[in-house]
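A quick word before the example. In earlier lectures we treated sequence and structure as two separate objects. From today on, think of them as two lines of the same record. Here is Succinate--CoA ligase [ADP-forming] subunit alpha written that way.
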Amino acid sequence: MSILVGKQTRVLVQGITGGAGSFHAKQMIEYGTNVVAGCTPTRGGEKFEAKDHSGKAVQVPVFDTVAEAVAKTGADTSCIFVPPPGAADAIVEAFDAGCKLVVCITEGIPAIDMIKVRRFLEALQAERTAHGGEIPRLIGPNCPGIITPEACKIGIMPGHIHKAGNIGVVSRSGTLTYEAVGQLTALGIGQSTCIGIGGDPVAGMDFVDVLALFEADPDTHGVILIGEIGGGAEERAAEFIKAKMTKPVAGFIAGTTAPPGKRMGHAGAIIAGGKGTAAEKIRALEAAGAKVAPTPSDMAVTLQSMMK
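And the structure line, produced from the sequence above:
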């Protein structure tokens, strides 16, 4: 009932001794996530202390390098809280060490740094594909992370609002992800996996990547897709929905009243040259067969109406 992460996922937290990394690592462990290691240069040998969901004390070993952490604990997924100047290198270090999934929460990574990461990742994915290996994937940066309810939470989302079930959620907006999940849970509808892909213009997984996984997952029966102004990710998602999706997709596009030329929160949320408007994205999704909610308060009921 999930994609990408579950109870078997072995999580490494890069930046586990920092303020944000420490706080959210404790939240993840309390939720039930299998956090097996932390990484902070010069802090190797320390133990990170937390409590699990039952209140039992947990000690997570801290390593100087990701390679050492992976070799000694079998970590296969990294969650990054490293500050912006070092976050791009942290992503590359995680993939170099063998992590198959990297979730980068850090906000404010320079676009030029992410362009280099993107090129590195695409080359690595091509190499793994050519040799039949598992494709490495990046979620984020500047994202809330990924959660398979009641199994594995990697990121900063509030775990208690989620409920295990059969609806996938993918979004460029963290807050609207929580809003959609809260609405679904209030209706008694659980989620298979929820992914915040982030709002930066240069990032890892996009809507198409996630929709393809939801389409292939037999336990995901419907999807909520939340987009926003700027870029062409929603239009590409619409093309995929029209060509490949057999499951109902409800959408919402934030920014219908946004003034052209003004950045709206996310680095990628800007209408430039008249392109990337909410109206264009809504038209594309509806033409592809998705049903777009008129307001953020209607996301769950819109999908619910398609599931009957």
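Notice the following. The mean pLDDT is 93. We will return to this example when we discuss secondary structure assignment.
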